[in-house]
Amino acid sequence: MCARLLLTARAFAEGVHALAVSTVLQLDKELSHPDEDVRKEAAGEVALLTPIIKAFIIGNGWLAASRCLQGVWQPRLHPRSGGWGSTCAVPAST
Q1: SS3 category, 77
Q2: Residue pLDDT, tens place only, 40-55
Q3: SS3 call for 1
Q4: CA–CA separation, 87 vs 72, rounded Å?
């Protein structure tokens, strides 16, 4: 389960990185391309994608970090005593 959570977080990070790099390339076209029509089209794409990228980074970054911490730090149940109250961190006294 922990590996799945970490791979999901990695997929979120790599996906938003690719989208951000693509948007930066459009921003470069907007600022320095000699053709006015290309600059206008690139400006529209940058204006559309910038808030989407920001929202994705904030929402999914927090969600991925939260899920990874819950998966890694989830207490394990003690095999002999069982129940939700006993964990390996605090073994039951006999």
Answers
A1: strand
A2: 999 999 999 999 999 9
A3: coil
A4: 15
- Token digits for 72? 């890694």
CA distance 31 to 42: 9
At 81 the pLDDT is 52
How far apart CA 77 and CA 94 sit, in angstroms, is 16
State which amino acid sits at residue 71.
G
- Decide: residue 42, CB within 10 A, 0-12 exposed, 13-18 middle, 19+ buried: buried
Instruction: Please give the Cα distance from 39 to 23 (Å, whole number).
Output: 13
Burial of 48 per CB tally in 10 Å (0-12, 13-18, 19+)? exposed
Q: What tokens appear for 17 in the block?
A: 């990185």
Query: Phi/psi at 74 (nearest 5 deg)?
Result: -70, 125
| pTM higher than the cut 0.90 | no
Measured in residues, the chain has a length of 94
